[in-house]
Amino acid sequence: MKETTRVFAIYKVIALAISLVFMQQYSKETVFITGSALAFLCIFIIMYALDLKCNGWKRESLKGKWLGKVNLFLILLLEGVLLGLGIEEWQPIFIVLGIELISYLTEEHDFYGLSVAGFIVMLGIYPGSINLVLINILVLITLLITINDSKKLSFYKILNRDQREQLIHLEEQIKDNERLIKTIKYSAVLEERNRLSARLHDKIGHSISSSIIMLEAAMLQMKKDQEKALISMQKATAHLREGVDDIRKALREERPIRSDLGSSDIQLLLDEANAKYELHTIYRTEGDLEQVNLELWQCIKENVGELLTNVLKHSKASAFTVEIKVMTAMVKVSYYDNGVCKGKLIKGLGLEAVEERTIKCNGKCFFEMNEMGFKVINIFLIS
User: Fold this and answer.
1) Burial category of 217 from C-beta neighbours within 10 Å (exposed 0-12, middle 13-18, buried 19 and up)
2) SS3 of 293, please?
3) CB 12: neighbour CB atoms within 10 A?
4) In the CATH hierarchy, which fold is given to the domain comprising 258-381?
5) Is the pLDDT of residue 59 over 50?
6) Which residues make Cβ contacts (< 8 Å) with residue 41, sequence separation at least 6?
């Protein structure tokens, strides 16, 4: 509530200045005016210091806050003194102190109604001159508006702080998730290596070990019985041939499908853009992706990365789409976003790199701008 405390301190000084001006107009004694001003200023400074000392203290609750109770006592004391003096020129100070008292003792939803009601009661007791009444009304209205704005400011400061803490927490969660993903990937690699090594050991290791034993037996039989030695060598050769076939079969089965490998790389790029920059990404494919060779997959992947960077830097797009359509003799790749396109197309380094990369893969590159966004189309011929 530092904002509200500051508002009341400022308005106390303003009210004091107004009261002194009116007292001078009615020819009050200079000594009395000066002494009163210094006394009020000293008390206002003490009250402001006490309120700041109660940092974070809510005005709705005084329980256990002795500093707040001291401040409340000073307000009541000043209000009593002003009532006892009965000088109508002190009314602006009386109004500000009264509103501060109400803010201490009432709930927020009752504050404004009670402030206006208290002001009306005060006018009934001390009507005062018309000029003073108008000044008091102005002080009341501006003070209530300023208090309302200060409460909103406090609310938004707290909201901003909470959102900042939530953002930090979410960033930490993202980092934890990234570390978890890396751990899972590493564990998956280790598990795959372990499975492959176990398969090679179980199916191929035994075949090679038995072949070695047969060859050693053939070496011992070479001098005594060449026919048995030859039979042993033939069996060993057959076992080794089977082992080589098993190795080729295992590697063929373990090798990832080319289309899955290339497609997953593109999907990974789009997912990262979605997670980091909140860019809605869409990936669609059609046709037999196995007809796309590795060189072409690499070209498409690099173009996706280049165009994603272009979208994030130069476009206000909220969505980015990649479509791969494989036909009988060609592959059509479309990249498009829903960004704002103005003026004539000027190819920067990024778009030139996309075009050059496409041409190197014996493809054609087309650019299109319209009210729907920006679109790039690659056409590749396949044999």
Assistant:
1) middle
2) coil
3) 23
4) Heat Shock Protein 90 (3.30.565)
5) no
6) 13, 16
DSSP-derived 3-state class of residue 164: helix
So where are the chain's domains? Answer: 2-128, 177-254, 258-381
Residue type, position 185, single letter: K
Please report, in angstroms and rounded to a whole number, the separation of the first and last CA atoms in the chain.
75
Which token pair is 27? 């020819």
Give a three-class secondary structure readout of 84-132: HHCCHHHHHHHHHHHHHHHHHHCCHHHHHHHHHHHHHHHHHHCCCCHHH
Cβ-based burial of 177 (10 A; exposed 0-12, middle 13-18, buried ≥19): exposed
Yes or no: say if 379 and 362 are a contact pair by the CB < 8 Å rule: no
What is residue 63's predicted lDDT score, i.e. its pLDDT?
A: 40
The string of DSSP letters for 49-93 reads HHHHHTTT--TT--TT-HHHHHHHHHHHHHHHHHHHH--GGGHHH
Residue type, 325: K
DSSP 3-state of 338: coil
Quick one: three-class SS letters along 244-265? HHHHHHHHHHHCCCHHHHHHHH
Residue 318 or 100, more confident: 318
**What's the rounded Cα separation, in Å, for the pair 351 and 346?**
9
Contact 232, 222 (CB under 8 A): no
* Measured distance CA(263)–CA(24) in Å, rounded: 87
Give backbone dihedrals phi and psi of 11, rounded to 5 degrees, phi first: -70, -30
Strand order in the sheet with 330-337: 280-286, 319-326, 330-337, 373-381, 363-370
- What is the DSSP track for 170-190? HHHHHHHHHHHHHHHHHHHHH
**CA distance readout (Å), 99 to 149, 282, 366:** 15, 59, 71
C-alpha dihedral sign at 293, 295, 298, 304: negative
Check: pTM over 0.85? Answer yes or no. Answer: no
Residue located via tokens 């026919």:
227
Determine the pLDDT at residue 282. Answer: 93
